Amino acid sequence: MTVVTRFAPSPTGFLHIGGARTALFNWLYARKTGGKMLLRIEDTDRQRSTTEAIDAILDGLSWLGLGWDDQTIYQFARADRHAEVARGLLAQGKAYHCYATPEELDEMRALAMKEGRPPRYDGRWRDRDPSEAPAGIKPVIRLKAQQDGETVVDDLVQGRVVIPNKDLDDLVLLRSDGTPTYMHAVVVDDHDMGVTHIIRGVDHLTNAARQTQIYQALGWPVPAMAHIPLIHGPDGAKLSKRHGALGVEQYRALGYLPEALRNYLVRLGWSQGDRELFSTEEMVEAFDLSNVGRSPARFDFAKLEAVNGHYIRHADDTRLLKAIDDVLPHIDNGTAIADALTPQVRAQVLKAMPGIKERAKTVLEI
After folding, report:
1. Using CA of residue 23, residue 38, residue 207, residue 54, what is the dihedral sign?
2. Which strands make up the sheet holding 140-143, listed edge to edge?
3. Phi and psi dihedrals of 241, rounded to 5?
């Protein structure tokens, strides 16, 4: 079996540092096993997905050196396939039309809150005759989920996760306008792309059981799953703007080398003893999902700066001159500095580089 992983970001903003770490883990696992990492852009949210965000994701991955295999897949372009699969389940009696109105769904939520339980669809159209459908209501298609027993996710990081099926309701596969839900589209895409291993953040663990039920209804093999810990700030809270830079492009503009950021990110949630520094080849050789922990990783900006300083001190002088060229388009006054770097000045910088790089922690300091 050829291992196939995937990185599947939503293009609603920059390439988040957490997303970059997820991409890195997928890339490393694929390289370690001689497999492939595919890239899928989950652009079904047409209002929030932007071309600029897609470009930022592609550019950020390329800058980090995380190349992907085969052509990039765009989820929105596959909407007809998603609908075809949902209608197939409908024809097999494994899904059904639901005509519940928004008002009825609001009442279900209100009742659940009043009774102190999670809001769930109550299955009122699960076994009703379609002839009872009210006029003027476009139905959604819901999965006829298992009601008895339990759904088990044998996660490669989190261990065995068991969810009673009574806690899972009949999720929507296709909305009333014919567009697929995220939960359904992901399953169809992963299957059609031949994905064997899903490596993603632990915040998706709650989706794993629902997606497993869709796989089972379709009679498709369920990929192996590995839900990796989230990245928190130094204070233990979820990483946010108040902690500092969030996007990969911000770290480039702050003067971090991509190889240093790669090295730092791999140690967030994955360990090999106390070792901190790895070349890319050493990372690939050593990486294993069994060494990924369950506890949230804390982002330490001082440690990242120290790692970056190490890479700068050990970098070839011409490599650092290129790093200066690369960072200038992303900083204030970068154009003016670039204009000032005449061949004569470049030669002087290169000559002075051995002394400069001993003290610098970022390319900006150089």
Report:
1. positive
2. 95-98, 140-143, 172-174
3. -60, -30
Q: How many CB atoms lie within 10 A of CB 231?
A: 22
Q: Are residues 32 and 169 in the same domain?
A: no
- Residue 256 carries which DSSP code? -
Are 215 and 236 contained in the same domain? no
Same domain, residue pair 66 and 91 = no
Residues 108-140: pLDDT tens digits? 888 878 887 778 888 778 888 878 888 888 999
**Per residue in 201-257, pLDDT tens?**
999 998 999 999 999 999 999 999 999 999 998 888 777 666 666 789 999 999 999
Residue 283 sits in the same domain as residue 203: no
Residue type, 295: S
User: Of these residues, 36, 138, 241, 322, which one is catalytic?
Assistant: 241
Query: H helices within the chain, ranges in order?
Result: 17-32, 51-64, 79-91, 102-114, 182-192, 205-218, 248-253, 258-266, 280-286, 301-313, 317-327, 334-340, 343-356
What six digits make up the tokens of 280? 């890319």
Q: What is the rounded distance in angstroms from the CA atom of residue 200 to the CA atom of residue 225?
A: 8
CA angle 55, 57, 62 (to 5 degrees): 95
Indicate whether 30 and 45 sit together in one domain: yes
The residue type of 350 is: L
Last residue of some domain: 274, 292, 314?
314
236 and 296 both lie in a single domain: yes
Burial of 87 (0-12, 13-18, 19+ CB in 10 A): middle
The residue from 228, 250, 269 where one domain ends is 228
Domain containing residue 274: 4-71+231-314
36 is catalytic: no
- The model carries a pTM of 0.92
